[in-house]
Amino acid sequence: MLYLTRKIGESVIINDDIEVTVIDIRGKSIKLGFTFPATATVLRREIHERIQAENRAAEATHQAGQVTEQETGKKPTD
To answer: Considering the entire predicted model, what is its pTM?
Structure first.
């Protein structure tokens, strides 16, 4: 993990097209501003982890349905 010290108004550039700027600091809270291409996706970690868990669950359900179909020759809804 990279650690940086930045002051209000200072930025870092990531991959030439993402800029992260320190907007405000209040106690232990920091407000960051992001400038990035419209094609980029930005999610809070907890949202990203929830989506990943839902995707894994959906894939497991899908794979279980395929196994059932292969074993019985019928789709689960038949």
So the answer is: 0.65
